[in-house]
Amino acid sequence: MKNIKHFLSLTLILSLTFLFSCKKDNDTPAVTTHKVVYKAVASAGSSIGIAVVSDGKGGNESFTSLSGSTWTSPEYTVPSSVIAVAAAVSATGTSATSTLNLQIWVDGVMKSEGKSTGAVLSANAAYSFQ
Predict the structure, then answer these.
(1) Domains of the chain and CATH, by start
(2) Distance (Å, whole) CA 50 – CA 37
(3) Distance between CA atoms of 47 and 40, rounded to whole angstroms?
(4) Which of 23, 48, 105, 127 pairs with 77 at a CA distance of 20 to 30 A?
(5) How far, in Å, CA of 60 to CA of 17, rounded?
(6) What CA–CA distance (Å, rounded) separates 71 from 42?
(7) pLDDT tens digits for 4-17?
(8) Residue-wise DSSP of 5-35
């Protein structure tokens, strides 16, 4: 009888140890914000004119009267509660083969890209955090 009690006690202890040791560890802290940057590059001779981007606070920010073939937005700190970000850029190309690339960079990694080809260029891109 004494051996059965020891055996049952040991079995219970081992079962509980196994049960509690198998629970999921959550060692990685939750990301509370993301750093978002928008970049546009047009082919040589093209001119970027307007950009509209998500500001990460539920609104949009417009950049007008731009010039040149490249444009980079300021860095936005986007809360993790934001579901998605998006951007649109327009440019004027020099010919039907002109190109415009729009990229969304999140935490230093390019996550989305939109492209356009032609004399009138309009590219858009969106990225969902989920």
Answers:
(1) 33-128 (2.60.40)
(2) 16
(3) 11
(4) 48
(5) 53
(6) 9
(7) 655 555 554 555 45
(8) HHHHHHHHHHHHHHHHHTSPP--SPPP-EEE
Q: Which two tokens stand for residue 17?
A: 């140890």
Among 42, 39, 41, CA closest to 119: 42
At 46-69, the pLDDT tens digits run 999 999 999 888 889 999 999 999
Cβ atoms of 121 and 92 within 8 Å: the answer is: yes
Judge whether 100 and 93 are in contact, CB under 8 Å.
yes
What's the pLDDT at 32? 87
* Average of per-residue pLDDT values in the chain: 86
Which residue type is seen at 39? K
The whole model's pTM is what? 0.76
